[in-house]
Structures are given as C-alpha cells and as structure tokens.
Automatic annotation (TrEMBL), chains A, B:
<dbReference type="InterPro" id="IPR047181">
    <property type="entry name" value="DP13A/B"/>
</dbReference>
<dbReference type="InterPro" id="IPR004148">
    <property type="entry name" value="BAR_dom"/>
</dbReference>
<dbReference type="Pfam" id="PF16746">
    <property type="entry name" value="BAR_3"/>
</dbReference>
<feature type="domain" description="BAR">
    <location>
        <begin position="9"/>
        <end position="208"/>
    </location>
</feature>
<protein>
    <submittedName>
        <fullName>DCC-interacting protein 13-beta</fullName>
    </submittedName>
</protein>
<dbReference type="InterPro" id="IPR027267">
    <property type="entry name" value="AH/BAR_dom_sf"/>
</dbReference>
Length: 208, 208
C-alpha cells in the first residue's frame, strides 16, 4: 500500500503520474468499502425502524382488541362490567404506548434512516457517476493518442496530423476536467463520511 | 334469549329439561364466543411479543454493525479514530437498549403470552372435550331409548326387555355424569375467564 496522503492534489491531476494513479486507487478502494458498509448499515437501520414501526402497529391492534371485548356482547355478560372497565383502562394505557411507539418510528425514519439514504443516493452515487465519466474520458484520450501515434510520418499528412493533435489535446482537456471533479468528490467524501456515519446514530439516540 | 342465570344447577342435570337445555345453549354460545375472542387476543399478543423480540434482534445486529466499522480497516483510516470511538460508544448504548428489549420480550413471553396460551390449552380445551363426551353420551342414551321403545310387546321378550332397560339406565347414568362434569366446567369458565382476560394485560403492564 502506498504512503497514504489524505488528499488527492488537484495539481497532480494534469500530470496523471503513476504515483497519482496509485493514490487514486487507494481512494477508490476506500469509497468502495464505504459503499459496502453504508449498504449494510442502512439495512440494519431499516430493520430497527421496521421493528419500531411494527411495534406501533401491534400495540394499536392490541388497544382495539381490548375494546372489542365489550362489543362481543357475551350472553353471560353479567359480572363482566368489571372486566370491561379494566380492559378499557388497559386499552387506554396501550393506546398511549402506541402513540409513543409510532412517534418513535417516525423520528427514526426522519433522523436515522433518511440521512443515510441521502448520503447513499447523493454522495456515493455522485462518486460512481464521476468515476464512470472519468473512465470514459480516459479511454477516449487513450484512443486519440493511439490514433495519433499510428499516423504515417509523410509530409502530406501535416493537416491530418494537426487535426489529430487537436483531438488529443481536446480529449486530454476533457479527461483533466473529469479527473478534477472526481478528485474533488473523493476528497469531499473523506469529510462527509464522518458526518454520514454519525448522523443516523445521533438521530437514533435523540429519538430514544 | 332466555333469562340468564349465572350458573347451570347440577341438580337440573338429572331431569335434563328443555329449560336446562336452553340455558346450556346460552353457556355454550358464551364459551364459543370466548374461544373466538381468546384466539384473536392471543394472535395480537403474539404480534406484540414478536415486534418486541424483533426489536431486540435488530438492536443486537445494529450494535454489532457499529463495531464492524473498525474492522473494515478503511485504507484512508487516518482521522477515522474519532469516528471509531464514537461508533463504539453508540454500540455500547445500543447494546444496553438491546438487553432491555430482549429482557422485555422474555417477560412478555412469560407473563403475557404464556398465561393466555395456558387458558386456551387447559380451560377451553377441557370444555370442548367435555362437550364432545357429553354429546356422545347423549347419543348413546337416545339410541338405547329408541331400541327399547321398538321392542315388541310380547311376553317372551321379558328377558330382553329387562336387558334393554338396564342399558337405558346405564347410558342415562353415563350421560348424567358427563353432563355434571360439563356443567361444572362451564360454570367454572365464567369465573376463570375474568382472570384469563386480565392476567396477560397485568403481565404486559408490569413488563413495561
């Protein structure tokens, strides 16, 4: 593993040296790992949210069920009044717990699950889009270089040669631009990932 | 609906009058309704227990997941120490919540779900078994009566007639015994059902 700097220097993008490429691959490996971890964490957070949400629904059903006892109109209802009253007061308590559980589930959705979904959809997706654009630009530049190097050295080709040089320069500029954006995003990810990892847990703790 | 007494009188079992039969049918309707309600309530209580149990499992997974961040060994790990430490302390908090949730789930199983399962398996099943036995005894008694009434009135049949009378008396005694047990169980159910309905909710409230 190469010496780890914490930043891809934008001024290195133009030269695109093997050292820079090697550092880039470290950043790419890191963001790949982060994507994997984010997906796993998101699955777990959604499981926690799901359980909390189900708890709300289950207690809601229980509260209704307890009130249903009275509606059953038991043929031998005499002496049941006490049971009915007690079940009604239980239903009230369970109903209050239900509000608590449902509120907690909503808070979890908003401040625990949602921020991580946003991190995945916005930041991680941006990285993979920019990686793709950078890859295409690199391929195009290399193709232009190969075409240029294969030109016959004859004098009458000067016009064609000049056109090809322009193409090489153009694709090089495009690749340079793509790499600048890609480097920027990869650098930014290193800062954003800290917030992204901690924010859902702050939301969770706050909800409790 | 006939006037509702709260007790099937055992001394009425022998005479087995239409009035007693009618009162019996009220008790049977009541215990049928109670069985239906018990099954629904049990389903809901098991749903609540399931949600609580899933909450324990989900928080356990989350606690593990948070500790996994360190094991990911991110290539660009420098600066991550803070994130790792914070996630570890979150993992500890979540772990404590997990113990709470799991403990709560166990308490729910023991003092909320279990008593109602027992009521269903013991009391309600006893009623349906005794109802069946009573039905069979009634059928056998009626069959004996029919056979007896169809005996030819000739004098040489005296021996056969005496045997048939014994059979009628024997099946009548069996039916009487079955009805005594059945009445007893139906009467007892009226007392037990109150405890059976309230006990799981007391367990639930205690668990919270």
């Amino acid at each position: 593993m190469p010496a780890v700097h914490h930043k891809l220097l934008l001024e290195d993008a133009l030269q695109d040296s093997p050292q820079t490429r090697s550092l880039l691959s470290v950043f790419e490996e890191d963001s790949g790992n982060l994507t994997e971890y984010t997906n796993q964490l998101l699955q777990t957070l959604q499981r926690v949210f799901g359980a909390q949400s189900e708890m709300g629904l289950a207690t809601e059903q229980l509260s209704r069920q307890l009130l249903d006892y009275e509606k059953k109109n038991f043929a031998l209802g005499k002496g049941d009044e006490e049971v009915i009253t007690t079940l009604q007061s239980f239903a009230k308590t369970v109903g209050e717990l239900n509000s608590l559980h449902s509120g907690l589930a909503n808070q979890m959705a908003d401040s625990m699950v949602f921020p991580l979904i946003q991190f995945r959809e916005k930041d991680l997706t941006e990285i993979s889009t920019l990686k793709e654009i950078f890859g295409i630009a690199t391929d195009e530049h290399e193709a232009a270089m190969v075409k240029y190097s294969r030109l016959p050295k004859k004098k009458e080709n000067e016009k064609l040669k000049a056109d090809m040089m322009k193409e090489v320069a153009y694709t090089r500029r495009k690749q340079h631009q793509a790499s600048l954006q890609y480097y920027c995003a990869l650098n930014a990810l290193q800062y954003r990932k800290r917030v992204a990892m901690l924010e859902p847990m702050l939301g969770y703790t706050q909800a409790q």
